[in-house]
Specification:
Length: about 350
Amino acid sequence: MKVVIFAGGVGTRLWPLSRKNTPKQFEKIVGDKSMLQIAVGKLFPEFKWEEIYISTGEHYKELVSSQLPQLPKENIIIEPEMRDVGPAVGLITSLFVKKNPDEPIALLWGSDHLVKEEQLFRKVLRAAEEIVVKNPEKIVFIGQKPRFPSQNLGYIEFGKQIQEVEGVPVFSFTGFKYRPHLSLAEKFLKDGHHAWNLGYFVITPRFLWKLFEQFSPELFEKLKKISDAYNTADYEKVLREVYPTIEKISFDNAILEKLDPKDANVLSVDIGWSDIGAWEALKEALSEKADENVTKGKVMLEDSSDTLVFNFTNQLTVGIDLEKMLVINTEDVVLVCPKDSVPKIKKLVESLTGTENEHLA
C-alpha cells in the first residue's frame, strides 16, 4: 500500500506563526520537529520511504525536500495551483491509476494532525488495506471516536458492526454529518454510532477513478488529460495548462456526498487524534485538563487558567490574570485574543491584503 499525505494548505487559523511562505505544517509547533515530519514519522517502521508520497503546492516543494531529505524526489506530487481538496485528490488518483490501479492507497488529509496512538494507527491502516484488497470496490473511512462534543468537526455516521479485521471492528457506513450544533454533538458523543471525520481513507485508485468519472464528469474530463500525459514528455506542460483551469470544489461535494453507503466501511477507533489546525484545537490537544495552561518558549503566567501562550522570541512573555486566552508572540507580530475569537483570525489575515502589512499575511 502507498500512503499519500496532503501538505498544501496555508493554515491561517494558526497565524501569525503560520504564513503563506511558511505554513503551519512546516513549523515546529509541538516539540523539535515540524508537523510534516511528525505526520510522516508516525508511519514508521510499518512503511518505507518509497511507499510515502507528499502532495503539496508549487511553492513548498523545496521545503518538503529539505524537511524530508530521505523522501524520493519523485514522491513529491506538485499542484501547480491550489484548487481545493477535490482536484487535489483527483490529481493523485489520475497518477496512481496509471502506476498501479489495484494497489490500495491511503489518503491522509492534513499534515498538521497529532496521533498519540501511533502503533494502533498503523495497525488500523493495515486493517483498512486488508478490507480493500478483498473488496477492491470499497472505500474504508478511518474515524476517531469522539472525546467531547465538538461542533467544529464533521462526523461519520456508521451502523452495525459487520466484521473484525486484525482485532479492529468494521462497521457499515451510513453517511456524513457536518459540524452539528451542541445538543446534536452531545447526542453523537453518547450514541456510539458517530466518529470524527479525519479525512483519512483507504481505496484503490481504479475504484476512486471510477467514482470521479461517475460523480464529477467535468472534473474527470480534465483529470483524464493529465492522466493520459503522465509518464510522457508532455506531462509538465499538460499539468500546468489543465490543472489551473479546474473548478475549485471540495472532495465532499465532488464525491463523498454522492457515495452509495453500501460501497463504504468505517473503522471507528481511538488513536488519540487531534487536529491542531487552530490555536484552540492545539490547546485542547496538549492539555491534560481543560483549565490547564499550555506554554512554549520564555513564558511566565500568574493567576491564569485555560490559556495558551506560545513565545517564539528571546523576549520574556508575561501574563497575569488571563483566562481562556491565546497569546502568540513572534518576531514581528503579537496576537492576543480570547480562545473563542479564533474564527476571526482568518478574516483578519485576509484584510491585510493590499495594506502596508500585507507581507505579514
